[in-house]
Input
Amino acid sequence: MKKIFYVLAFILLVNNKITAQENNKFSTGEIHGNFQMMAQNYLVDSTIGAKAVNEKIRMNSFANLNFIKGNFKAGIRYESYEKSLLGFDPRYNGSDITYRYATYTNDDLEFTIGNFYEQFGSGLIFRSYEERGLGIDNAMDGIRVKYKPTNGVYLKGIVGKQRFYFTKGEGIVRGLDAEFNLNEIFSNFLPEFNPANARYTYILGGSMVGKYQADNDPIRILPENVAAFSGRFNFISDKFNFYTEYANKINDPSLTNGFIYKKGEALFLSANYSVKGFSLSASAKRVDNMDFRSDRNADVNNLTLSFLPAISKQHTYALPAFYPYATQPLGELGEQFEVSYNFKKGSKLGGKYGTLVTFNFSNATNLDTTQTGNEQGYSANFWSKGKTLLYRDLNLEVVKKLSPKLKTTYTYMYQVFNKDKVQNVSGYGTVYAHIAVFETQYKISSKNTFRAELQSLRTKQDFGDWAVALAEYTVSPHWFFAALDQYNYGNAKEEKRAHYFSGSFGYTKNATRFILGYGKQREGYLCVGGVCRLIPASYGLSLSISSTF
Amino acid sequence: MKANKITLILLFIFSVLCVNAQDKLPAVNVKTIDGATFNTANINNNGQPIIIDFWATWCKPCVQELTAISDLYEDWQKTTGVKIYAVSIDDARNSARVKPFVNARGWEYQILLDPNADLKRAMNVGDIPHTFLINGKGEIIFQHAGYAPGDENELYEKLLESIKANAVK
Output
């Protein structure tokens, strides 16, 4: 740790003393970075369950600084949680340098010391990543080497420990990944494989990840080394793309799987076909006891090695995202299908400006399992589905431009959401919801635009019916003003039929943004990329500043 | 330990003061929409301007922005010779959906996939959309975060300015 700082400091000093000639210019390197700050004060509102905090105001901030010079890069991130916003894990507490690295790259070799983010394939057995808005950061701290021994062969090796808030997890992670682009390899001696003129591309890959964690359990005999393997294949042509990845993990008793010794596996398949104006895509996923972490005692979003996002469509409007699905890494079978068609300009359904129609279906059930009553926990039938529906989503979206100034979007969806199973709670059962969204955007002038959303969610379960209205006025390129009301008019408890009003405005100049907001935020899940965080109900003033330099 | 960190920060600030920023594009490996590994050092447009736009299929303002520019892209290309790289930061959940998504909308951009956010980090992008304008010499001369309808006009003005500035030299 200390040594890395000295090395970095040394390199920085040296860099300021010397200048190297590159591209016939004298350059001493560049520094860039970004900064972000979010602050909120918390007021009490008993109807929505918003609580005050002792500190009155809480703040999350961070800044990245990156130095680049020729083939050399180094950087740090400073993070500050004084104290962390509600909804973030309270272990994000204090301020410190949480990320620092140095990377050297030449044509075929790259090595990094310090922190890094990396992913093998689609991430079934290894992905270290950050999602700052969700408080997720399982960055590696160690060493990474990437090497390209010949055209079309890409090798990666990693060793290190993962970040755990302001410390590191105790598990040591080691991994290797190899990817072979067959076209690039064969193009050396078979010209028809040359990527520039090949009709088909074939890519193969494989990875291996192991973790070591000492067994200090007084009773159980736990495997101290756990290995996982994965293989992947990708076929690509002009119109068609097929991708599959399979992963397997040896016995890995952990807190999340209830310390069972069963092996884990995951299979992901995806195929799509598209031409201009039309696309079809389908994917399927089977996950069985595949919660893989560098610490067997970790839970929630901590110290994850496997990345198993949901394959259902990721909704962006407020009410369609009200019941967000999150993968069940212990066992799930899911499929997804989507078709899009763009009715051409001038056709009957296309009108003067064209109409884009998208239909999407996704479904997830549990696995067909039998309890074994021994340390294996259960056995699962690979080829059949379980009887419990976890999630289903049927949705149709129509985007229609009526004139150069007026654009509208209509969305309808039907969702089935097994709240008990997906959110791991009890007593809520399954929610059946009909959701409709109407959005319109009117361009008043080249710089002034008005946009409005009306949303409705109807259900007999959970919190009952909701309505949302949003109005937004933007003045390009600097200003926006927005007002939002979310109204829980159908709540079975009359005293809970609350309005959640909020207003905000923002100023943007180039890559710097200020946003000031005031109002009420309902309790709910905030999800990015299929990983979710519960944000509590809150009421108050918020300020965010972000900038890239 | 604390003292070391402070020293390090001071050194960084010192470095900022000493370096002459050139705002070049970083060299990072991403993927093309056809699965090939692509180094961003190879982004070029024969001395003509380049726009790099970070987006994702789930990001509404990003899709709004790229849709708006798509209607103007042909004209922009004729008048300025600009080439647009739309860099998707969709992760494994959505990256296979990027190509059908782009095709259904008829976008003509060069699409790059950055599922591990390597290029996003190297260019210090926070929230998306985030747009960079790069002149014919490969220097970043303008960037903009977020999108409001009409922002494409500002981008176009900057694009015209950059061409004028190049012509004068």
Chain A touches chain B through 101 residues (CB under 8 Å). The two ends of chain A are 28 Å apart (CA to CA). Chain A is about 5% helix and 55% strand.
